[in-house]
Write a structure and sequence with these properties.
Layout (H helix, E strand, L loop, with lengths): L8 H17 L8 H19 L2 H4 L9
């Protein structure tokens, strides 16, 4: 099992993508400062966002026309 079942697939997808971001970026949090840890979290969040909502797809949406 990759995540604890929450019955929230979107939340589970986010968690998997976020943790994958840590793995891809080679983050190791032992012995680092709080600022470095916060930076790792921001990078993992950006990785998850780009994985789940790719910019190249979002950029072509005409958001002003969506009702």
């Amino acid at each position: 099992m990759l995540t604890a079942s929450t019955r929230r697939p979107a939340g589970e997808n986010w968690s998997i993508a976020h943790e994958s971001g840590h793995l891809v970026r080679g983050h190791h949090d032992q012995g680092i400062s709080r600022a470095e840890r916060d930076q790792h979290e921001a990078v993992a969040n950006a990785f998850a966002a780009d994985t789940l909502l790719p910019r190249e797809i979002l950029d072509v949406v005409d958001w002003d026309r969506i009702a």
